[in-house]
Amino acid sequence: MLEIKNLYAGLDGKDILQGIDLKVNAGEVHAIMGPNGSGKSTLASVIAGKDEYEVTQGEILFENNSIVDLDPEERAHKGVFLSFQYPVEIPGVSVTNFIKTAINETRKAQKLGDMPAAEMLKLIKEKADMLEIDRKFLSRSLNEGFSGGEKKRNEIFQLAMLNPKLAILDETDSGLDIDALKVVSNGVNKIRNKDNAIVLITHYQRLLDHIVPDFVHVLMNGRIVKSGTKELAYELEEKGYDWIKEELV
Amino acid sequence: MKPETLNKKLIMSFKDKLLTSYIALEDYLEFDSPIHDVRNKAIKIFEEKGFPTKKEEAWKYTSLNKLLKQDYSIISNKENNVEWKKVRPYFLHEIDTYKIVFIDGVYSSFLSETTHDDVDVCLMSAALTKSKFKPVIETYFNKIAKKDGITSLNTAFTKDGAYINIPAHKEVQKPIEIINFSTGSEAAMFLQPRNLIVVGENAHVQIIERHQSLSENKVLTNSVTEIFAEKRAYVDYYKIQNDTDTSSLIDNTYISQEHQSICHVHTFAFGGDLVRNNLNFYQKGERCDSTLKGVTILEGNQHVDHNTLVHHTAPNCESHQDYKGIFAESSTGVFNGKILVDKIAQKIDAFQQNNNILIDDKATINAKPQLEIFADDVKCSHGCTIGQFDEDALFYLRSRGIGVKESQALLMYAFANTVLESVKIPELKMRINKLIANKIGVSLGFEL
Question: Which chain A residues are within 8 Å of B421, Cβ to Cβ?
Answer without folding.
Answer: 92
